[in-house]
Design a protein that fits this description.
Elements lengths: L1 E2 L1 E2 L12 E2 L9 E9 L3 H8 L15 E2 L3 E8 L14 E5 L7 E5 L3 E3 L6 H7 L3 H10 L7 E4 L5 H12 L3 E6 L2 H10 L4 E4 L4 H8 L5 E6 L4 H6 L1 E9 L14 H7 L2 E4 L2 H7 L1 H16 L11 E2 L4 H9 L9 E2 L11
Helix pairs in contact: 3-4, 3-10, 9-10
The protein binds NADP nicotinamide-adenine-dinucleotide phosphate.
NADP nicotinamide-adenine-dinucleotide phosphate binds next to helix 4 and helix 9.
Length: 341
């Protein structure tokens, strides 16, 4: 099969091209999936360059390996030890597993979910990594109708869905962007109340929008707790989701600033919470998929990418911060005999 195979780490993700590698053979507890779509994310760039925390000898991704994580596809074979989820050959599924930038990937139970009939495979893969955004709104900060929610990294995969989920529960949303060019697209394509470029007097603009009160909630994807404190209301809530802008250097926060405004800061690591609280995880997926199936959440798709040959271009566009929303790369048509339910 063809795959973005990494015999060693690369400096420039734009140089990544598919090569011929052996088709993976599923172990007893694994599904074999024909990949039809994949959706590159920030972590894939780190994996390709050897800069991810999992790029150690003991981690998941050390050369040689096939790159990629989020995918949608069609089950080719079920685990020989049995399928607990009931997924069958021919089912459309989405999920995550190292090696997804390939024609085939092997994944264990729990790494895939069936795609609901109403969703296209493109939508499923574009939204597969953002249940965390939904959960940050509904389960962690418990956003209420009428509250103002500030979202950093709002153009990103997580951020764009934070905005949509907050709007879906009736909040007003202020989306933060890195530059004016991107902000222009976001004003056109994202259903938010205000898009601000993070420069000059943006904090004052948040205060003006909220009539001097400040936003009730900040969903922070970039690492901007100190800025958030300056434009949050008393008893405001900050949910830390990621540090996309920190370049590995963490913020320091003066505790008295939290006390003076009675601010709550909570970190949320989706994967770990899911492993520890599987019932809550299922509840989150039910709520998230229901919002997707009823059209309350819709993917914001960026550009057109087709074939594994386009993976290098997709990752480079991500790295250059051109992207708003999610990239989906179509890898193959649905194989004949695929089931829609
Ligand atoms: N908590 C969890 O469980 C969880 C799960 C998955 C991912 N994450 C983390 O959440 C963060 C966001 O992930 P994502 O998939 O949404 O990433 P993404 O699609 O790359 O979006 C990140 C956004 O941050 C902004 N940004 C600001 N400074 C940046 C910089 N120096 N480099 C890149 N982007 C920068 C960009 O918008 P502008 O260009 O407009 O500024 C970009 O759209 C990442 O740190 C990721 O590791 C957390």
């Amino acid at each position: 099969m063809k795959a973005i195979h990494k015999p060693q780490f690369v400096e420039d993700v734009a140089t990544l091209r598919p090569t011929e590698v052996p088709t993976p053979q599923p172990k007893g507890d694994q599904y074999l999936v024909r990949v039809t779509h994949c959706s590159p994310q920030h972590a894939d760039i780190l994996h390709a360059k050897g800069k991810h925390q999992n790029n150690t000898k003991r981690g998941w991704c050390h050369p040689p390996f096939n790159l990629g994580y989020d995918f949608a596809g069609v089950v080719q074979s079920v685990p020989s030890l049995g399928s607990k989820s009931g997924s069958k050959k021919g089912d459309r599924v989405f999920g995550a597993g190292i090696g997804a930038f390939a024609e085939y990937v092997c994944v264990p139970e729990g790494a895939i979910r069936r795609i609901p009939e109403k969703l296209t495979s493109e939508t499923a893969v574009a939204m597969s990594g953002q249940a965390v955004s939904y959960a940050s709104v509904v389960h962690i900060t418990k956003v209420q109708p009428g509250e103002t929610v500030l979202v950093s990294g709002a153009s990103g995969g997580l951020g764009s869905v934070c905005c949509m989920a907050a709007k879906a529960v009736g909040a007003k949303v202020i989306a933060l962007a890195g530059d004016e060019e991107k902000a222009k697209h976001m004003r056109r394509d994202m259903n938010v109340d205000l898009v601000l470029v993070m420069k000059d007097d943006w904090i004052q603009k948040v205060m003006d929008f909220t009539k001097g009160v400040g936003a009730e909630v900040c969903l922070d994807n970039t690492g901007m707790v100190n800025d958030a404190i300056r434009c949050l209301a008393y008893f405001g809530r900050i949910c830390i989701l990621g540090f996309a802008a920190r370049k590995g250097v963490m913020e320091e926060v003066k505790m008295n600033k939290l006390l003076l405004k009675s601010i709550t800061v909570v970190g949320y690591r989706f994967g770990e919470s899911g492993r520890r609280y599987p019932e809550t995880l299922e509840e989150i997926w039910r709520g998230y998929l229901s919002m997707l199936e009823t059209g309350k959440l819709q993917p914001l798709l960026y550009g057109k990418y087709e074939g594994l040959e386009d993976i290098g271009r997709a990752l480079k566009d991500l790295e250059d911060r051109k992207v708003y929303g999610k990239i989906v790369v179509k890898v193959a048509d649905l194989p004949a005999g695929s089931r829609l339910t």
